[in-house]
Amino acid sequence: MPDRDAIYQSTLVVVAEIADMSADEIQATDKLRDDLGLDSLQEMEIMSRLSEEYDIEPEMKDVMNVRTVADVADFLVTYLKD
Amino acid sequence: MRALVVGGTGFLGLNLVEALQQGGHEVAITRRKSSNTIFARRLKVPLFTAELDDEEALTAAMQGRDVVFMMAGHYPRFSVDTAAQTAQALARLRTVLAAARRARVQRLVFTSSTATLGTPAEDRPVRESDGFCVPEAESTYFVIKVALEQEVLRAAQDLDTVVVCPGGCIGRYDYKVGTGFFILGVATQRLDRFVDGKVSMVDAADIAAGHIGAARHGARGQRYILGGTNLTVKSLLAEVAAHCGVAPPTWELSPAEALALAEAEEQRCLLDRRERPLMTREMVDIARFGRFVDASLARQTFGYTPRPLAQALQRSLAWYAENGYWNDPRFISASTTRSPLAALDAAAQEKGEVHARS
């Protein structure tokens, strides 16, 4: 299983691409909507892209609970551990 | 059949994939790079990456397919710059049609909408033979739908095309919450106002069955209405509210008030995409221009039989609850008697009244 740092880095890459920002500008505590200006469909796109990358099939209700960049990485770490 | 669903990662597409798989058909789908594939991958369906302007990728995905279901399209979220949006939508459709010709697919089934239907001279539900509506230039969704359907029907001269026109779709996999906002908005009590009009509500699984019927038994160059329960928006909202045990919205807007609100809301949300408009031009137009529809031709041609509204509402509400869109444990499992709708349906069936509320 990839370590948390690797997962966080790949999360940053995807979030930066979809938010159309540089990864340097993004903090772990940034809220996807309030701080990065993403909408619900873009949030789903992030989770879809990462779940494809890590070959997992998350539940939609879990996807909808993600709020921050760190939440995304934590979700993947937890899911992959399980 | 060997089928390809263009737009198979969307609401109707996922329902069609599920129906094709259950019918023993071989199915693959196309997806855009940005598509949400969470549900499609769970259905274990092969995915081809093909943007709608990539004729090579589309042709490759269509090779060896008997039927292509064209369910994707350029449908902008808001009614802004209709002419440019329509030109873009037409260009992408023409690319898909060109790919279908190159791949020599036997049939292309295009998903249109009852929004394209014309108005009958006399007071009766609309039929396929009533022609096309003439949408206002500002009604981007309607303008695009009419333009695309007419293009597909023209293409029937040298490509076997069939058109299906679904009504207001609700049901499983509505992860973007389209027409289903009429349902979810009442259930969560976030919909506090409405504009009245006529709608025909149908479960997406029945729409999927209608697509398969049209592919197998439809006539080339023909359109088929896939309607459901004809009722007013006000009656629909009251029915949903009764099922959920909440009060229905009572703030009824006139069409002019609703249009003004929708235009202001779309402008506000264009500036801040995180926001969801209280009302969209599309929602207003659906109610303003909605008609009761007659699905007799689909029923006679391929046995199209939409389920009663109560069942469609139950499935829709259960899916939203199971997927975290609202939190009401009564609706988590559609098959248990904990669900008030399941209990209502069971009681109605016992009394032989299963269709009474639809």
Q: What is this structure's SSE topology?
A:
The complex is a heterodimer of chains A (82) and B (358).
Chain A: H1 4-19, H2 40-53, H3 60-63, H4 69-81
Chain B: E1 2-6, H1 11-22, E2 26-31, H2 38-42, E3 47-49, H3 55-62, E4 67-70, H4 82-102, E5 107-111, H5 140-155, E6 161-166, E7 168-170, H6 181-187, E8 193-195, E9 198-203, H7 204-217, E10 223-226, E11 229-232, H8 233-244, E12 251-253, H9 255-271, H10 281-289, H11 296-302, H12 309-322, H13 340-350
Parallel strand pairs in B: 1-2, 1-4, 2-3, 4-5, 5-6, 6-10, 7-9, 8-12
Antiparallel strand pairs in B: 9-11
Q: How much is the radius of gyration of chain A in Å?
A: 11 Å
Give the helix proportion of chain B (percent range).
40-55%
Q: How do the strands line up in the largest sheet of chain B? A: 3-2-1-4-5-6-10
Q: Give the largest interface pair and sizes.
A: A-B, 22 and 18 residues
Question: Can you describe what's shown?
Answer:
The complex is a heterodimer of chains A (82) and B (358). With 82 residues, chain A is mostly helical. Chain A has four helices and no strands. Chain A has helices at 4-19, 40-53, 60-63, 69-81. In chain A, α1 (4-19) crosses α4. Chain A is globular. With 358 residues, chain B is α/β, with parallel strands linked by helices. Helix content of chain B is 43%, strand content 15%. Chain B has 13 helices and twelve strands. A seven-stranded parallel beta sheet of chain B has the order 3-2-1-4-5-6-10, with helices on both faces. In chain B, strands 7-9-11 form a three-stranded mixed beta sheet. In chain B, α1 links the parallel β1 (2-6) and β2 (26-31). In chain B, α1 (11-22) crosses α7, α3 (55-62) crosses α4 (82-102) and α4 packs parallel to α5. The two termini of chain B are 33 Å apart. Residues 334-358 of chain B have low confidence and may be disordered. Classes of the chains: A mainly alpha (82), B alpha/beta (358). At the A-B interface, α2 and α3 of A face α2 of B.
